[in-house]
Amino acid sequence: MEETAEALRAAGIDPSEATPEQKAEAQKNTGCQKAAQAMLLKWEQGDPDVRGLWAKMNGWVYDGFDTTYRNLGISFDKIYYESQTYLLGKSLVDEGLAKGIFYRRDDGSVWCDLTADGLDEKLLLRGDGTSVYMTQDLGTACRRHEEYGFDEMIYVVGNEQNYHFQVLKLILGKLGFDWADAIYHLSYGMVELPEGKMKSREGTVVDADDLIEKMYQTAKETSLESGKLEDMDPAEQDKLFMMLGLGALKYFIIKVDPRKTMLFDPRESIDFNGNTGPFIQYTHARIKSVLRKASEQGMAAAVTAEPLLPKEIELVKIMAGFPDKIKEAAEAHSPALVANYAYNLAKEFNQYYHDVSILKEADERVRSQRLMLIATIAKVLVKAMDILGIQLPERM
């Protein structure tokens, strides 16, 4: 920051009055930026010392990523590395240059003129021949299509990168790739804290691992306050707290349309009432508890063709609409639709459970059918939440 300010002053510009363009240009002339660019050039040239340092530092980063993803229960079928696709990207730029799609400036840099498309000119290769993010993304997109021949490729990236993906799609189209139209940028809004936006320069960014630990502790405190886990094994309790914490975290974020900026409050997300992950998790545990008690008393679940109550008909209708809801969510690129479907089903069940007798129902055929109904509700809840990467406990 100070180096950039000094560069601006050297150019006769007051740092406090500099435009974003002036700041970006000044940053190019700082010692740190020049040193980084020189190192990038050596990396692309295969310098062993630079490559060795890069591999070591990347190893630290990937180890950290693996830990976080493992804690969140996230896995990937395939991982693409820019270091493995940037050469393909550079070859695509060379092809576009040869076809007159791109042009080279006097300093040797290569650009794509998108002014006719209502945008500006986009840098594709620097004057020293090194690649930029766009170069690498061109190569990665082509490699993915070569390997998977996708019908649609969804980039789940924050809305700060809207322009980048608009340009990526345009350039791929200009290069003649008809599948460029199959690219979709799921532009999600930012997540804010109760005290305001997260800003790295101000030190208010929340580390994912710290947040997971905080959610675990919040789930533990909230669960122990209920006093219902005294007979549960400590190891089982620990597993439950992590399940609740991650469920609360994931659901609270997923239930909001991905395009919207949202406020995340850890304490609110763990509430066992309202539209939260723990509410749905508790609902599932309640159903499983009823089914266990029924089994212990020798009661069986079965469809007996007994007339259904209006509330039971409503529950059946909600469950019958599950496949259509999944299709709707996929077409809208919005997992929030699945989250709110699960909440609606859980809410309707709890009202039914409050109003209707199940285990104490005297008519065996009616009781068996009600047990089958709630067992099916539990299965649908598991399927819906599994799509969101959220586990449901058997008891809590």
Chain-wise SSE layout:
Blueprint: H1 2-10, H2 20-28, H3 31-44, H4 48-72, H5 82-98, E1 103-104, E2 110-113, E3 121-125, H6 133-148, E4 153-158, H7 162-174, E5 183-188, E6 191-192, H8 208-226, H9 234-254, E7 262-263, H10 266-269, H11 277-296, H12 310-320, H13 322-332, H14 336-355, H15 364-387
Parallel strand pairs: 4-5, 6-7
Antiparallel strand pairs: 1-2, 2-3
Helix pairs in contact: 1-2, 3-4, 5-6, 8-9, 11-14, 11-15, 12-14, 13-14, 14-15
Salient structural properties:
single chain, 2 domains, three-stranded antiparallel beta sheet, 396 residues, Isoleucyl-tRNA Synthetase, Domain 1, mainly alpha, Rossmann fold
Give a written overview of the molecule:
The chain has 396 residues and is mainly alpha-helical. The protein has two domains: 76-188, Rossmann fold, CATH 3.40.50.620; 200-387, Isoleucyl-tRNA Synthetase, Domain 1 (Orthogonal Bundle). It contains 15 helices and seven strands. The protein has helices at 2-10, 20-28, 31-44, 48-72, 82-98, 133-148, 162-174, 208-226, 234-254, 266-269, 277-296, 310-320, 322-332, 336-355, 364-387; strands at residues 103-104, 110-113, 121-125, 153-158, 183-188, 191-192, 262-263. A three-stranded antiparallel beta sheet has the order 1-2-3. A two-stranded parallel sheet has the order 4-5. A two-stranded parallel sheet has the order 6-7. A hairpin with a 5-residue loop joins strand 1 (103-104) and strand 2 (110-113). The model has no long low-confidence stretch (mean pLDDT 88).
